[in-house]
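Pipeline run #58 for the internal structure catalog. This entry was flagged by the ingest filter as a single-chain record with no existing model, so it goes straight to prediction. Upstream metadata was stripped on purpose; only the residue string is passed forward. Reviewer on rotation: M.T. Logging verbosity set to normal.
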Amino acid sequence: MPETQLLSGKAVSAAVYSELNSRIAALKEKGLTPGLAVILVGADPASQVYVRSKERRFAKMGLYSETFRFDDDLPESDLIEKIRELNDDHNFHGLLVQLPLSQQISEQKIIETINPEKDVDGFHPVNLGLMTAGVPRFISCTPKGILRILKHYDIETSGKHVVVCGRSNIVGRPISVLLSLKTDYGNAIVTVIHSRTPDLQKYTRQADILIAALGQPEMITGDFIKAGACVIDVGINRVEDAAQEKGYRMVGDVQQSTVMGKASYLTPVPGGVGLMTIAMLVENTVEAAELGLQ
């Protein structure tokens, strides 16, 4: 049985922040501080935690960030008006609307209202199209973070069979495209499986690299993977646990206890891909500021 190496999001994100410091300093010398506007509608607990983490990181990096908070009952028209206002605000190089949104608001309409040149989440159809064409402007933060982890640990993707569990526009779809592109960290044979796929294990056991983005706590057990596979766990799930002081614990889509000792590599939860998502948001915001100078 192989010894499993944990792929530390903390180590990789620290390397990213170190590299970004000089780029941020260069922008500030030109009188430009990269700025991010965040719109948060409602009080979703996970969204609140994520937004606070963004705010702390931007402050630590000496960047400008402002969060605009609204109640759950915000009319869609008011949100669109606010986005258009921020599209025209030169203090902000990046703009993101935290998902999920309230039921009365169309997420797709909101995404399409954001200026593609400020879409640091990489969700706008224009940016998705550029990525699919192999000429990305902004890559969605979580898929970009996965690629950076693979690169940091020198995990080969060319010619490897990658199985992506999940087909969301946030993770599954973009990472499947990115890994199939003719790039240094692409050239993979990619299979996408999802909730309608019969016999998931038939496919997951073939994977050289397995990416779990199903949103199902600890669904992927050791039985799902072949020996020596690289397992990337994108899931962040809160499960009840009376033994914990908070009454819950955070787990991924992968059951770490049964995968350890069978996989060659594994991203832990917490401490893996989640940390990279914020690092890539910082990088995308810096890139947006740099693009504004061209």
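catalog note: The mean pLDDT is 95.
catalog note: The chain has two domains: 30-115, 140-274.
status: ready for reviewer M.T.
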